[in-house]
């Protein structure tokens, strides 16, 4: 697997010949990577701009930038109605 080999995730031999004559359960094999949804908790909302339709978040949002990336907000421990109200008031969006 060195010197420019193109089979970094490819398997070698996966089972014996005659005995036991099958592939063991749980044998590590290559498969698809990525394409799964992830959930990041406790990110802070810095600013909500309705004119530009932008939500500015402090922290890392995983995944590549795609127009229309899905952000789903939930009411957790840190994101209470009071904290959202304080964020909007500090940005001058809520009186």
UniProtKB/TrEMBL annotation:
Gene3D superfamilies noted in UniProt: Translation factors
One of the record's GO molecular function terms: rRNA binding
BP terms from Gene Ontology: translation
Highest taxon of source: Eukaryota
Alphabetical UniProt keywords: Ribonucleoprotein, Ribosomal protein, RNA-binding, rRNA-binding
Gene Ontology annotations for the cellular component aspect, listed alphabetically: ribonucleoprotein complex; ribosome
Region spans: Disordered: 1-36
Family: Belongs to the universal ribosomal protein uL3 family.
UniProt name for this protein: Large ribosomal subunit protein uL3c
Recorded name of the encoding gene: RPL3_4
